[in-house]
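Give me the 3D structure for beta-galactosidase.
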Amino acid sequence: MGVSRALLRYLVSLSLIIHAAVTTANFFKPFNVSYDHRALIIDGKRRMLISAGFHYPRATPEMWPDLIAKSKKGGADVIQTYVFWNGHEPVRGQYYFEGRYDIIKFVKLVGASGLYLHLRIGPYVCAEWNFGGFPVWLRDVPGIEFRTDNVPFKEEMERFVKKIVKLMREEMLFSWQGGPIIMLQINACNGYYCDGFKPNSPNKPVFWTEDWDGWYTKWGGRLPHRPAEDLAFAVARFFQRGGSFQNYYMYFGGTNFNRTSGGPFYVTSYDYDAPIDEYGLLSEPKWGHLKDLHAAIKLCEPALVAADSPQYIKLGPKQEAHVYHVDTNTEGLNLTQYGSQSRCSAFLANIDERKAAVVRFLGQTYHLPPWSVSILPDCRNTVFNTAKVGAQTSIKTVEFELPLFSNISARQQFTVHDEVSYFSKSWMTIKEPIGIWSKKIFSVQGILEHLNVTKDHSDYLWYITRIYVSDDDITFWEEKQVRPTLTIDSMRDVLRVFINGQLTGSVIGRWVKVVQPVRFVQGYNDLVLLSETVGLQNYGAFLEKDGAGFRGQIKLTGFKNGDIDLSTLSWTYQVGLKGEFSSIYTVEENEKARWSDLTVDAVPATFTWYKTHFNTPDGTDPVALDLGSMGKGQAWVNGTTYRGHG
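Predicted structure for beta-galactosidase (646 residues):
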């Protein structure tokens, strides 16, 4: 990432080397943060730190206190979060810090819990987040090129970074003000294993800013899973081999609310197989196994911070020990003098993936399962082995209050049994019009790029034109037994083709070729192309040029007098859906709409709005909408959108 030297100096002065100030906040006594080659130094003391990755917009504010508390109970010292530029500055110069984007409230909750905060301002975050966290308006800045040594990009980036830093400072949230923020953006190791990582200077400590404890999911893809044993092994090896700061990405993944999923084609859930699941429930045995690991590492912390580096001892062909002690001469070590407050700690590793091993260490015998690390806080007694899970597996039950089986009638599918009181007896519906629905349209010759028109205010863009079909064309198709075909060189993400108001075909994919047979009648025909995005690209080079919609030639083939180049025609453009822009989902506006009862014989339309009412369920268990039987769309509860894309 290109960053000006002035900005770097500005950030460094506020991050790793943080000097005490006179003003104070209510969370901590003001303290300095610095570092040496071994670790972060907090208030004059080296620390071994466990961090829990948790993105505030991926949970509701009501969930934040419980999630922070569960992170702390699980052994975390730090909460790490990105700052999401497109959420905070949706329009250039207009900032938003409310609801799920109330970052000040979030940081203060972290501080009130006694945890530190690692604030990753970005401003590029990737994070499987729409457009990588960049606001879409950024691509319209003249001359801009993202994430490179480009003056317009650096100026915009610097403006936003300074805005966030100023906001944190005004709220007295930096450590030198008594706040929880101990670090800003760090560039360090990201990956599944980082025990071999070396920083770019021998004077810097080893940080692991993204320990991938799972992975994201694409529509139609498998749900990824990383075993708790392997994750614990990776973390133990990191601290064994000299690491000092480790962050789980993610400790809580949460939900991509609204239209924030990146992609394209990333699912709304950002569960990530994290220790705390999407709904805020503990994911066992992962959470409990890691909690035990963290406790073992904390027992080793006195030795880990006292020693500048470990002593390496080879125990076998694929077995090794790392010993942390102020006196690295283990041959003369008298183990009897060390108890629970020992400054001698050891990690015994078996990196053989298949075979267990029996090793001798400091005169004692130890059994090491395959691919495991044993932790000895006093260099004698094993308190934890990464392959031995003591936490119980959690069994989560889901109670379905609304049947969603495809083999039942529409009436049954959208109502509940008499004995269930949560949902109303019936659903209501409105069909969304196809094509032009407002006066806010315009016509130009040619095919325009999707994002240049929508500015990502909606996933949907209608392209509308008219095609004249002669009697000769009809006769030609009948005689040759062929059909005209719509061809597009390249398209992303979803295309729906309508002829005279009827859905003719759909295509899904990322920059795929379209070959769609169509059927016209004699005379004028309305050709409507609906381009839909399912999350904007969130990583890679030239994001500002990626775009959406169509690329290359777009034409109709199979006509008697040759192909029709559709890029030469006049097209009318309509952004979004009528119900979307009239806010039909809000409490105020939905009552004004002309809803009708959903009948048993209702014929599903291509786009349909549904609504119902339900009573708030008793208790504090998570409440979720199961949209497994639905297509692409969104869901709102009391006017707040909870699900997007899909």
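The radius of gyration is 29 Å. Let me know if you want a second pass.
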